[in-house]
Design brief:
The complex is a heterodimer of chains A (263) and B (107).
Chain A lengths: L1 H4 L5 H6 L16 H29 L6 H4 L12 H4 L14 H25 L3 H31 L5 E7 L2 E7 L12 H33 L2 H5 L3 H26 L1
Antiparallel strand pairs in A: 1-2
Helix pairs in contact in A: 3-8, 3-10, 6-7, 6-10, 7-8, 8-10
Chain B lengths: L7 H4 L8 H23 L4 H22 L7 H8 L3 H20 L1
Helix pairs in contact in B: 2-3
Classes of the chains: A mainly alpha (263), B mainly alpha (107).
């Protein structure tokens, strides 16, 4: 590229120089500015979420692990890290039924499904099919809102706690006192060490905030599609860019699901 | 861009949807998640189960990033500039898990 612009270069010099894609005047990454910046933002966001999940690993490994041989049958206690499936075993409208991980499974399904409707909206955008983009964006918004609703329920249940609570002995002002804890907050936790509840609030809360901003972005994209902004522009690349963000949120949940709920 | 928009003029109306690969990815993701549930309830927890879960999570992550986010269709240089920095995550993970075990020892 650059060689052709230098008029004084002799023929032999020109053949010796290899043209590089980094000489300028083209797009080496073949992606628009907006898409590149979204990718690099997502990379930085991946580091943030990694840090949170690795912190979970660090704090979990610095606590005693539950072992049936040492601690007897599992019950909530401050001495060891709880088994997640024993903590998250409730579903709405079915009181006192032990249904481990069922509700979080439903949430996972909702988020994966909304990721599919998002990619269908992107595909419709490639075909400049305004009607289909609108349809799939609406389904994606509905999926995101459903996920947030589920999370609100799960948080409420986690904060409220079980009916019986957990009785603990703790040192307060130099005296050993027995008291019953119900649910969890940032300082007290009936399910296990307080750090477990802290990490639950931070990690699922940070992810939920991402879902919330994703839903807001999706609504903006839907609005712009509906009033014909992208049709006039001639392309639906904004749907693609917000789609990248939405899939990333789904991707993070895949990791949160494994490391917080399954392992 | 991996796909070029087809304009109305060139195709004579809106093109037919090409969604086969999308739905295939969906069923793969759903299948792996279902399998994770089966393993969670049938297998005793231990290092092997953790390894299986991590492996399945990475497979799911691959499908989401490659298919849904179309990273597979981008230029090689872009793919590597996204993936290589994530090596630091692996380093931090190993470092802090080891550190966590050491904290448990002195507690």
């Amino acid at each position: 590229m650059a060689a052709t612009t230098v008029a004084s270069t002799t023929q032999s010099e020109m053949t010796e120089r290899k043209a590089s894609i980094w000489d300028g005047g083209n797009e080496p990454l073949k992606a628009s500015y907006g898409k590149l910046m979204m990718w690099f933002f997502l990379l930085s966001d991946a580091f943030t979420f990694s840090a949170l999940l690795i912190t979970y690993g660090l704090i979990r490994f610095s606590h005693t692990a539950y072992s049936e041989a040492v601690h007897g049958p599992f019950k909530f206690a401050q001495e060891y890290w709880p088994i997640p499936e024993r903590v998250f075993d409730a579903i709405p409208f079915f009181h006192d039924i032990h249904a481990p991980l069922v509700f979080v499974g439903i949430m996972t399904f909702v988020l994966i499904a909304s990721s599919v409707t998002m990619v269908l909206a992107v595909e419709a955008g490639h075909r400049n099919d305004r009607h289909d983009v609108e349809k799939w964006m609406l389904w994606t918004i509905l999926g995101g809102a459903t996920f947030l609703g589920c999370q609100a329920w799960e948080w409420t249940h986690f904060i409220t706690g079980t009916e019986a609570g957990t009785t603990i002995r703790t040192l307060e002002n130099g005296n050993w006192v027995t008291k019953t804890l119900f649910g969890a907050n940032l300082v007290a936790n009936q399910y296990g060490p307080p750090a477990f509840a802290d990490l639950f609030f931070f990690i699922t809360g940070f992810h939920g905030t991402h879902v919330l901003s994703g839903v807001v972005l999706n609504i903006l994209i839907f609005y712009n599609t509906a009033v014909g902004v992208y049709e006039r522009r001639g392309h639906y690349e904004m749907v693609e860019k917000v789609g990248l963000y939405w899939h990333f949120v789904d991707l993070v949940w895949v990791f949160v699901f494994t490391f917080f709920y399954l392992v | 861009m991996a796909h070029h928009p087809q304009h109305h003029a060139s195709t004579g109306g809106i093109a037919k949807p090409q969604t086969q690969a999308i739905w295939k990815t969906f069923w793969i993701l759903l299948g792996i998640t279902a399998l994770e549930f089966i393993i969670a309830f049938t297998m005793k927890s231990g290092p092997l189960r953790v390894a299986i879960f991590v492996g399945m999570t990475l497979v799911k992550a691959f499908y989401i990033v490659a298919e849904f986010m179309h990273l597979k269709g981008e230029v090689k240089f872009l793919i590597w500039s996204i993936l290589i920095p994530l090596v630091f995550v692996i380093w931090l993970l190993i470092a802090l898990i080891v550190e966590g075990g050491a904290i448990d020892q002195v507690r």
